[in-house]
Amino acid sequence: MTEPLLKVLKPGLQTTVQDLGRTGYQQYGISPSGALDSYSLQMANLLVGNPLYEAGLEVTVMGPSLEALKDVSMAICGGNLQPMVNKKKVSMWKSFVFRKGDILSFGKVESGARAYIGFAGGIDVPLVLGSKSTFINGTMGGFDGRALDAGDIVQGMPFVRKNRFLHKDFIPEYHAQIEIRVILGPHLEKFHPDAIKRFLSNEYTISPQSNRMGYRLAGPELNHIDGADIISDAIPAGGIQVPSNGQPIILMAERQTTGGYARIATVISVDLPLLAQAKPGTKIRFAGITIEEAQELYRKQRKLFKVLSIVSS
Q1: Is residue 90 within 8 Å of 99, Cβ to Cβ?
Q2: pTM, entire model
Q3: How far is 57 from 44, CA to CA, in rounded Å?
Q4: Sign of the alpha-carbon torsion through 144, 150, 152, 156
Q5: CA 243 distance to own-chain centroid
Q6: What pLDDT was estimated at residue 1?
Q7: Closest CA to 120 of 44, 194, 173, 187
Q8: I need a labelling partner for 163 at 20 to 30 A (CA). Which of 85, 210, 249, 274 fits?
Q9: DSSP code, position 48
């Protein structure tokens, strides 16, 4: 039986319920959604003793104000939005007890763009197609497919567990200039060879016109051969489309499921969390790697989560 866990006093800019996404429905036109920074969400879940896939709150840039209605263990990971309990700063990447009557609030962004809050016992919202994730553009999941609003009551099955912390070696750093690794293709024949070289040797800037659907970039134009259009095909997470204006768009969690613009590359899965923490104005350089290298990096990350899951159980 779930209980009232939190009361939303202020919603923040965009606070949503997210898990690891709604997989298996892209062929029906339904975006996977899910946490943009899956690494931070999973770490928050580990720190409070939840399964990796459990839902938490994704907080974007300007955080909410939340009142505890029950004692519950909580952990905040990801971007440093200066979390405070009762106006006193609390540590990130570490679990602690959020006690009944306590108020969680946030200050200005210190680093990153999104924080993830995990609660022991998880968040109780209806499963929609196997996921609790909020898909805003599709108005499904979470709280009726929308961001949290003032007065909302978040339900859960609160537990108080032994406090845990994450070793500093596993805590990412977020900077104003980042390198993102990509696998080139699949439509390289649609680009002039000099465009591919330009893509890998120049800096691009994340535009303010960026959101959970996609990040628009500004930088040197990537010119096509015989136009930007292709026969529409499925779009993976991190796919980099280049429309006719030559400016790349990185497709993120709430991306459209198919697209008709040529893709020059795809961001590797282990770098998507770093990209998720990049704010408008962040400078990006791209580095090409092989599929085999990307797979090995993914295996190492999964092994890390497996080991930490065993240790925390």
Answers
A1: no
A2: 0.96
A3: 10
A4: positive
A5: 24
A6: 79
A7: 44
A8: 274
A9: T
Does position 312 have pLDDT exceeding 90, yes or no?
A: no
Residue 313 pLDDT grade (very low, low, confident, very high; cuts 50, 70, 90)? low
Please give the share of the chain, as a percent, with pLDDT higher than 90. Answer: 98
With beta carbons less than 8 A apart as the criterion, state whether 164 and 269 touch.
Answer: no
Handedness of CA 80, 81, 85, 88 (dihedral sign): positive
For 269, phi then psi, to 5°, come to: -60, -35
Query: Looking at residue 311, what is its pLDDT?
Result: 73
Looking at the DSSP bridge assignments, the partners of residue 58 are: 16, 116
User: Which pLDDT score is estimated for 167?
Assistant: 94
DSSP states of 213-282:
SEEEEESS---BSS-SEEEEEE--TTEEE--TT---EEE-TT--SEEEE-EEEEE-GGGHHHHHTPPTT-
Read off the tokens for 278: 């990049």
Cα 11 to its chain centre, rounded Å, is 18
Residues contacting residue 205 through CB under 8 Å, at least 6 positions apart: 217, 218, 219, 281, 282, 283, 284
Q: Which residues contact 42 (CB under 8 A, 6 or more apart)?
A: 20, 52, 305
Strand partners, 78: 115
Of 117, 94, 104, whose CA–CA distance to 163 is shortest? 94
Backbone angles phi, psi at 310, to 5 degrees: -65, -45
As given in the structure block, the two tokens for residue 255 are: 């991306």
Altogether, the residues listed in the chain come to a count of 313
CA 269 to CA 272: how far, in whole Å? 5
Angle at 109 between CA 54 and CA 247, to 5 degrees: 85
Q: How far apart are CA 279 and CA 283, in angstroms?
A: 9
End-to-end CA gap in the chain: 23
Q: What is the mean pLDDT of the chain?
A: 96
